[in-house]
Design goal:
It contains six helices and five strands. With 166 residues, the protein is α/β, with parallel strands linked by helices. Strands 1-2-3-4-5 form a five-stranded parallel sheet. Helix 5 links the parallel strand 4 and strand 5. The longest helix has 18 residues.
Length: 166
């Protein structure tokens, strides 16, 4: 089944040397953790329950979480508390470019630039390390889409006054 195929792909990727995994669920963390005990997780799903945050942080050692709203950042802060090793990736969204991606999920999550500036400042105020992330669309056919997102990220970094982790 699908779970077996995912597990086999995970084993091949881990065997190739990958240590950092972009995951969307604690279930994915559990599967990868079973394959690779020293995996590092980037939890890039902006909608997480308190239990999922707790399990990701305490059980699987996840130290990067994504947010696109104040409420999610507050929830993470309440669950984790103070930890300067935690990175919070603020997810940017820009108005959609029609026809630029084969599968456009780019506007499903993310915050506009002015909210991202505020979120980055709140991340710093809470003692976490700020990161910026975006999803310009899967299989994007237009390089200019990436340029627009990178330029927006640069504006957010400058306006926030924060040193953004890379």
């Amino acid at each position: 089944g699908l779970a077996h195929a995912d597990h086999q792909r995970g084993r091949r990727v881990a065997a190739a040397g990958l240590k950092h995994w972009d995951v969307a669920s604690v279930h994915e963390m559990a599967m990868i953790h079973g394959i690779q005990r020293d995996a590092h997780f980037h939890y890039h799903n902006p909608v997480k329950s308190r239990r999922e945050i707790e399990d990701a942080y305490r059980t699987y050692g996840c130290r990067r979480f994504v947010v696109d709203c104040r409420e999610e950042l507050q929830k993470i802060s309440e669950v984790i508390g103070s930890d300067a090793t935690v990175e919070i990736a603020v997810r940017l969204v820009l108005p959609r470019d029609r026809g630029s991606s084969a599968h456009d999920f780019s506007t499903k999550f993310g915050a506009p630039e002015h909210i991202c500036v505020e979120l980055v400042q709140q991340v710093v105020a809470l003692g976490y390390q700020p990161v910026l992330t975006f999803h310009p669309g899967s299989q994007s056919k237009e390089p200019q889409v990436y340029v627009r997102h990178i330029e927006a990220a640069a504006r957010i970094a400058k306006l926030s006054g924060a040193k953004i982790n890379t």
